[in-house]
Amino acid sequence: GIATGNGATNAGIYNNTVVGNSGDGISWSNQSGAVIRNNILSGNGRHLDANLDTPVTLSNNLCSNSGFGCSMVGDPRFANPGAFDFHLLAGSPAIDAGYDLSRLGMTDFDGKPRLQGSSSDLGAFESGGSTPSDTQSPSVSIVSPVQGSIVKRLN
Hints:
By secondary structure, this protein is an all-beta fold.
């Protein structure tokens, strides 16, 4: 899971996918001003656990079951969680459900810019668009065989 504390101030915990922890998904204590937004929490012992004496802002967090700080409850519709593929499938309640953090210039875990739709998605992966790729054409030089050699085709 993710934790903030030890006197931290203004920690930002944004767009994480936290799955399958026996303890807390996200926890905080002995801190001030943490902002916890746009996260997906699924299959954790407790999704969000807090020392309520510490101020925190919670919004736009999707949990697989109800609990403190869960703005939405439902199946996040991961592509293949058994193979640790936490991309979102069409129809996921996490798509376009995020708080607008575009001012932070964030990208998702694949490097795609956030805000591929009407709003940011929840969790580590933004749906839609395409993953950035290498746009430089490869350079190929043939160094063997030398000119005049006969090359046999192997099939």
